[in-house]
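Researcher: Please translate sequence to structure tokens.
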Amino acid sequence: MKRREAVIFKQALLRPLTVSGTANPLSQTGLPSPDELNRVDYCGNVVYDRGERRLLLENGYVTFDITTNTPSYHFYLRDHLGNNRVVMAGDGTVEQVTHYYPFGGVMRESTNPGLQPYKYGGKELDHTSGLDAYDFGARMYFADRLQWGQMDPLCEKYYEVSPYVYCLDNPIKFIDIYGMAPGDRFKNPTLAAIDFGITYNVESIKRNKEMASFIYKMKDKDGIIYYTYPGPAKGSKDHVSKEDMKSIDRSKISVDEFIDVVANIHTHGRELENYENNKFSGEQTTPKQNKEWRGEKQRGNRYNPDDISEANRTQTYSYVVTPNGELRGYDPKTGKVTVWSTKMPTSDKQVNNTGKIDSNSSVWERFIRFINSL
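Model: Translation complete:
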């Protein structure tokens, strides 16, 4: 949403300017008359638009009756990318439904589009002069062109990517909060773990290699807490070593926003003979046994702690994504193992006997699996 410290005035045209001929200047008949101008005032998180006062809140907004000043409350229902999909009145009545194409275009099946303008990514869809651009703050985004209207102010950090491309050309996975840098942002560690499993479990099974990363707690410049993870380390078929973990890609993680490591996560690759990898290694029958467990397993000529023992040693919450499609979590403080999802990509559905990914394992299906796994 727009947040402004000072009052900003923006004049919105009721109709766009018209051009007389392809190379002639604007005709007098094409210029708007004074009564065709509408002024929209942004005063902090209060917007005055065509005589209506609207108070913008984190999860919705409040409108006020012009005569009685009676407030009416409206609430957003968002998807995992922060897109406002449904607007509901205080009594539960559905006021607006918006369906999006992956890059932010609004589908025809949407209802009551003029009710409120905050839509894709929670950003305002600005119809001024008929341009239909989303205002991300740092720059404007045009969903019909699938690109930004200005260069990325942080383009030197992403030299391998076009400075006009939106979210590294992958808006199903990435979001861009301010129009400057894409990244994964999740409301809690488990949502981050679900995304990790959907993103990497197929590759882990295909290559028969475990993959691992950390889940970070972050705080942006507006004080908003979120969770994310860096690119994973790739290990062997039965473990990821400390040396492997040094290869984790943290280049997209903001050091200034980092607070703490709240969990770790890894995949288990394919199912192996004589190895139970549809659970944590070292997983016991009861929480009490898990808390007390201190076990090791042989890795070549060395013995290293198993998953449960390592979590007990570090007292760090752990997730594992298994070949049978489960996302399991272990809390060393309680000894409890929780199955957070049973709908991760699995060897039976996404990988055939030759170890190749099926052709229908598309980005869109990954998005659907994410929604179904919540």
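Researcher: Any highlights?
Model: Confidence is low (pLDDT under 50) at residues 1-36, 348-364.
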